[in-house]
Amino acid sequence: MFEALQVLRYIENNTLEVIYNDEVKKQTSKLLSTANNCFSAFGHCINLVHEAEMSAVALYLQKKADAFVVDERTTRLLIENPRKLMNILKHKLHTNIKENMDNIRDFSKITKNVRIIRSVELVTVAYENGLLDKYMANIPDSKKILLESVLWGVKLNGCAVSKREIKQIMRIEK
User: Fold this and answer.
1) In which order are the strands placed within the sheet that holds 98-99?
2) Mean confidence (pLDDT) of the chain
């Protein structure tokens, strides 16, 4: 609820804009239906994504945006690597997954040019550009501690980033 209040504040001060658009609504419906019919198990389609995620993709497509920021691994993999997503589903559900190749092709065709950025990349760029410097403490290795703490913060708040990726970023940013 607190996050909702924070977002509401950004909407009220016009930092964020809520867009009601029939074309986005129509595209959202198509994306949602296609995505949630890509894979099935036990004779039932697997609902992979939610309306909000597909609405954001639809708006990205309509606005021809430069990038789509999403931390949700399922959404990201459905766009970037549906085969890998299918393997994850097999492992998690401990069953065979049937793929609907027509829907996978349709979804991939619609989203083929979607460029995805995760919060972990945004945080790393912010760090590189000194935007987080105001949070540095007067302690040994403060830059390293700052970056690592922010990376773990986004992970613990839902960004699909592995421990291995965090270690890799830390090595690169030394």
Assistant:
1) 44-45, 39-41, 98-99
2) 94
